[in-house]
Amino acid sequence: MASDLELKAKEAFVEDHFELAVELLTQAIDLDPKISTLFADRAQANIKLNNFTEAVADANKAIELDPSLSKAYMRKGIACMKLEEYQTAKTALETGASLAEDKSRFVNLIKECEKLIAEESYTIPTQEKSTAQDAIPQDVQLQDLAEKPIVAVAKPKYRHEFYQKPEEVVVTIFAKGVSKESITVEFGEQILSVKIDVPGEDSYVLQNRLFGKIVPSSCRYEVLSTKIEIRLAKAESIHWKSLEFTTETTVAPRAIVSSGTQRPTYPSSKPKRVDWDKLEAQVKKEEKDENLDGDAALNKFFREIYQDADEDTRRAMKKSFVESNGTVLSTNWKEVGTKKVEGSPPDGMELKKWEY
Question: Domain of life here (predicted)?
Fold first, then answer.
């Protein structure tokens, strides 16, 4: 059953077995694809594995199934930050903050997004269009700038290729006779996600981190009888050397000048990168040094017990905490090892499902 797989996935997550957690959650989703929390939890496991585009897709699916699920927006925000899609991350985090009871973590991440967006907003001065360019007919310029079709190296179910214009990139997926209802297309700040589900056939997924940033609200797609045509609106009029993002060092992109009075713009400069390891170490130090009281102090006390405990005690603590949805914490493995620990909320309180 999906619930049993979900419980096993949580246990694997606690043990830092994130690949196993993804596998178990995938099996649970196959059994019941309408449970939003399964997708949100798999997004978290994918973040731990640095599978950030997969995490964004899972978070989007969780939001589609339950638009009020705040943790799905949190995980989408974190994954987008890792992909340097700061504006998309900020939008997701702001929506999640409006739905969450505890907004503190959302607020901190939103501030970090705003800082990164500010650092990214530097623009290089533009250049005037040259006389030589004026002399070249527009159709010749466009022909020269168009990319040759790029075919995927693997052998996917459908072939795709792309070409570009000064203001947009056009991606074509050659899928003949596919209905519009079978196709899902999602746009991110630097992500294109396409899924084709034809009954009785394996799903086709094209999910890329793009070479450059796009404007999601201006992107569109059209389903034709022999193909799917996707138009990506460029955020900057630069020449894309490929459809997919690459970390290889390249020369500065040349500006693409369209007809009319519009001047070219250049890529944003990023003078500073976030040291995520340093940021995590700083948060852990603050947690260690903070003066806690009430439930926070109690939780810290139990964490310290766990760190110094033997294997049986740790197993007892994890099993009792997971199975009781966070309402029971036992250190006696002989007592809890042979039976399921039932939830026991305090008087006057309602038992809620534990979220990790």
Answer: Eukaryota
| Tokens describing residue 263 | 């001047």
Query: CA 267, 268, 273: angle at the middle one, nearest 5?
Result: 130
* Distance (Å, whole) CA 261 – CA 13: 55
What gap in Å lies between CA 57 and CA 70, rounded to an integer?
A: 16
Whose structure tokens read 């713009």? 265
In 3D, which of 221, 235, 217 has the Cα closest to residue 173? Answer: 221
Inter-residue contact 243 to 261 (CB < 8 Å)? no
Count H helices and E strands in the chain, helices first. 13, 7
For the residues 77-81, what does the mean pLDDT come to?
91
The pTM score is 0.45
Coarse DSSP helix, strand, coil percentages of the chain, rounded to the nearest 5 percent: 45, 15, 40
Identify the bridge partners of residue 228 per DSSP, sorted by sequence position: 173, 223
Contact assessment for residue 324 and residue 346, using Cβ atoms and an 8 Å cutoff: no
Which range among 213-217, 247-251, 299-303, 352-356 shows the weakest confidence by mean pLDDT?
Answer: 247-251
Reading the block at residue 255, the tokens are 């500006």
Q: What is the radius of gyration, based on Cα positions, of the chain?
A: 25
Long-range contacts of 262-266 (CB under 8 A, 24+ apart): 262/237, 263/126, 263/127, 263/128, 263/129, 264/126, 264/127, 264/237, 265/123, 265/124, 265/126, 265/236, 265/237, 265/238, 266/123, 266/124, 266/126, 266/236, 266/238
pLDDT category at 282 given cuts 50, 70, 90 is: confident
More confident residue, 49 or 303: 49
- Cβ neighbors of 176 (< 8 A, separation 6 or more) are 225, 226, 227
Query: What does DSSP assign to residue 202?
Result: -
| 3-class state of residue 185 by DSSP | strand
